[in-house]
Amino acid sequence: MKKTGIILLMLIGFAAFGQSDLPKLPRVEIGIEEQLGKTIPLHLKFLNEKGDTVSLSQLIDKPTVLSFVYFDCPSICGPFQAGIAEVIARADMKLGTDYQVILISFNPLDNPLKATLKKLNYVQGIPQEQQSAWHYLTGSPENIKLITDAVGYRFKPTGLDFAHPSALIVLSPQGKITRYLFGISFLPFDLKMAIIEAQKGLARPTINKVLEYCFSYNDTSHSYTLQITRLVATMTIMIALLIFLVLILKKRKKTAN
Asked: Structure pTM?
C-alpha cells in the first residue's frame, strides 16, 4: 500500500509538471507575447513624420501592418525596414488602398525629423502616390509603453541601444490584432493572406510561436540564440522522474513475485 502511495504521488507529480510552470519560465523581457484577438488602444496619439499629432483611431481605417523600430539601431532595424519595403513592392495588393503600414519608434528620443530622414531611405521603390500610406510615428514614453504592452512587444534598453525583436503585427480596420509575422523579410503571399484575414477580422495563431521558449535575444550578436541550458534542464528533470517511476514499478513487481 505504501509503494502504491509513492507511485500515486509520482503520477501526481507528472501531472503537476505538465500543468505547472516547472521549469519556471521568466516573463518575456525581449520578444513577443502574442495578444491575438485583442484591440489596441486607438485613442493613443503620436507625431507623424510631418510633426502633426495623430491618433491611431484617425489612421486605422483599413487593414494595418504595425511595426516597431528605433532610428539609431545599428543592427536589425535597417534590414527589417528594407524587408517591409521589399514585400510592399512585391505584394499583389496596393498600399493605401488595400492596407497601410504604421511604423512606431519605441525610442522616445526619436523625433519627426529623424522619422522623415529614415522613411526616405526605404520608400524609394514604392510608387510616390502610395508612400503616404506608410506612416512613421514617434511619441511619448507613456504612449510607447501603452502601445507596445498592448501588442505584447517586449524590448529592453542596453546602454545607448535596445535589444528587441522584429515582427509585423497585422490589425483589422477596427484595431483588432489578427496576425503576427516574425522575421526581417516576408513573403508576399503571407502578407496578402494576413491582410485578407485582417479585413475579415480573423485572428490566426503563429506557427513558430515555440521560438519564444527555445530562443532568446543575444545582446552581443543582436540575434536569437538557442537556450540549450533551459532545454537540457527540462529534459533532465523529465528523464529523472521517468527513471525513478520505472525503478519503483520494477521493485513492486519483484516484491509481488
From this structure: 0.71
CATH number at residue 96: 3.40.30.10
Shared domain for 68 and 94, answered yes or no, is yes
Shortest CA distance to 31 belongs to which of 231, 201, 213? Answer: 213
Q: Is residue 213 part of a domain?
A: no
Q: Are residues 67 and 138 both part of a single domain?
A: yes
Residues whose CB is less than 8 angstroms from the CB of residue 32 and which lie 6 or more positions away in sequence, other chains included: 152, 153, 154, 165, 167, 180, 182, 212
List, for residues 185-214, the tens digit of each pLDDT value.
999 999 999 999 999 998 887 764 433 333
pLDDT tens across 12-56, in order? Answer: 454 444 444 444 445 668 899 999 999 999 999 999 999 999 999
Indicate the number of domains in the chain.
Answer: 2
